[in-house]
Amino acid sequence: MALILNEEQQSLKDIAKEFLQKNAPVTHFREIRDTQNELGYDQSLWSEMVNLGWSGILIPEEYGGFDFGMVGMGSIFEEMGRTLTPSPLFSTGVLGASLLTLGGDDKQKQNYLPRIVDGSLTTALALEEGNRHSPFSISTKATKAGNDYKISGEKTFVIDGHCSNLIVVAARTEGSDDDASGITLFLVEADADGIEITKTSMVDSRNCANIKFNDITVLSSNLLGEENNGAAILEEVLDRAQIAISAEMLGNASQAFDVTLDYLKERKQFGSVIGTFQALQHRAAEMYSELELTKSSVIAACNAVDENSNDLKRMASLAKYKAGETNHLVTNEAVQMHGGVGVTDEYDVGLYLKRARVTEQIFGNSEYHLDRYATLSEY
Q1: Which residues on adjacent β-strands are paired with residue 159?
Q2: How many CB atoms lie within 10 A of CB 13?
Q3: What would the CATH number be for the domain defined by 124-228?
Q4: From residue 51, how far is each of 62, 140, 141, 175, 359 by CA, in Å?
Q5: Could you tell me which residues come within 8 angstroms of residue 34 by beta carbon, excluding any fewer than 6 positions away?
Q6: 223-224/207-218 β-pairing
Q7: Are 152 and 259 in contact (CB under 8 A)?
Q8: What percent of the chain has a predicted confidence (pLDDT) above 70?
Q9: What is the pLDDT of residue 187?
Q10: Which of the two ends of the chain, N or C, has the fewest CB atoms closer than 10 A to its terminal CB?
């Protein structure tokens, strides 16, 4: 397994870096936040990202995608993490594309995947129901109503839930609330009768929503995958999602480190540049070492997806665990080394700490993935 990018992958990363730094620097994120943009991202910027082909990276060529692989997508997310770029790429280009590619029938793929590629469709996954990630703790019910289904329940922390056209809902059709079996996935139009969507304000300004399903009717043709077997699709999709968000966290931590390193070279205290203080040098060296380990973990996990590795689940949890730990460490140190100004809105470093605290929780924090890794390793 190569832990470096090949020529095509490096070219994609370079293009992403140049595009994002020019068109979506941190000032762009601030503008979206400060104007309280209802959509939560800039539609024109998203259209440019679509034109670059990013929305179709994980989609097979037969449906208009590019099938470039997870290493390519991870490279983009790393650069997006550096600039805090708001976009529906995670909820649509990773979650939606993966759910439909892995679970959809031919008709569903023909209907939805080309629309993801051309940017006319955005998606969201309505999965979580509690304060912590527990993918099989599902009490939202889907009951048979003739040939169709009725769905009732509530979902929390739905990424891009308020601004997506299509919502993939995980509901229970059989079994108790914590069973992996008995979970079924449904494709639900966001404007369906009986849906209540409430946008929530996250500390890092990431798009999320709470969604309530009030006995909505879903056609049997909108069932994604097999009835009662949605967990199998979910697990595979969540592995991809955890890896993508780990790549974003790597970019987030890397930029916080770079900003802090520049500050250490400029800030003077007691007549000396603080970067000359040995204690701060030791702390910076630790951050650098952890970032290098995280890079290896993330690219190994991305490769595991592309190579369809039997070790994918462990690699996904390893990447999410390591990225979470490193991002937490680096953003904490970054703010501390900046001193009091580090927590003011004038300095960007505080924005990276806020983003770190939210991404740590998306689809499982470090404790969750440490336990999952141990379980998969039969400890």
Answers
A1: 208
A2: 18
A3: 2.40.110.10
A4: 18, 37, 39, 44, 27
A5: none
A6: unpaired
A7: no
A8: 99
A9: 98
A10: C
Q: How many residues does the chain have?
A: 379
Measured CA to CA, the distance from residue 158 to residue 290 in angstroms comes to 30
Provide mean pLDDT across the span 3-27.
94
The tokens describing 160, both together, are 């891009």
Show me where the domains of the chain are located. 7-122, 124-228, 232-376
End-to-end CA distance of the chain: 25
- 0.85 exceeded by pTM: yes
Q: Which residues contact 90 (CB under 8 A, 6 or more apart)?
A: 77, 159, 160, 241, 244, 245, 248
Q: Residue 78: which H helix or E strand, with range?
A: helix 70-83
Fold of 232-376: Butyryl-CoA Dehydrogenase, subunit A; domain 3 (1.20.140)
CA distances from 202 to 159, 207, 307, 359 (A): 10, 7, 35, 11
